[in-house]
Protein: Isoprenyl transferase
Amino acid sequence: MDIDMTNIPKHIGIIMDGNGRWAKRRGLPRTLGHREGTKRVIEIVEACYKLGVKSLSLYAFSTENWKRPEEEVSKLMDLLIYYIENQLEKIKKNNIKINVLGDISCLPSKVRLSVECALNETMHNDKMILNIGLNYGGRDEIIRATKLVAKDVLDGKTNVEEITSKVFENYLYTSGQDELDLLIRPSGELRVSNFMLYQLAYSEFWFSDVLWPDFTEDVLLDAIKDFQKRSRRYGGIDE
Ligand code: FPP
Structure:
């Protein structure tokens, strides 16, 4: 089956899982799995850009990942800086906007500065949005949004009756973006691990045993072809 270019998911989320197992199977340190995983980030961003995906959300570092050994956390931060330094020119050329899901205020300053530079330099781009989940948790995002709404109510900027899901969505990190159409999780785990809990209400899920460092463009195309077979009813019925 060929891909239907008229039915490409507008927003794809990926829980990039399996780097550690990929490395372990080869007798390598986990950090080399993350390094290989970073190469897939580069390829999959490019593939989504070519397909015309409007938003790609990648789960790079969760609010729970701080529990990992310091050396692994530090390597992940270095890879993020490497990715930005190495890819920023291409991202800018391709008119891609970088957006962060999560609170970056407590990241090490060199990472924060690098991310802030990428945010500033791409803020007016509009071909595709690359959301990077960094110190991100879906529950935290919903609590943060709720606090912001409460503050606007207290400040008289809105009132309780006006708060619909459409209004609430404006307080999420993905404000203004298309809904999450397709959530992909490689590595054989069948859970959402606190990723985009609000946004995935009507997402199609696609799971695969492939580990993230083996996740090629062809695997992405398989996921999209499968998505294209789904009947999305949003609680209604087929015509
Ligand atoms: C999960 O695999 C993966 C992560 C926690 C990190 C993902 C980060 C990258 C792919 C690289 C940096 C990101 C960007 C955007 C440049 P795991 O370590 O939990 O694997 P395991 O379940 O096999 O142990």
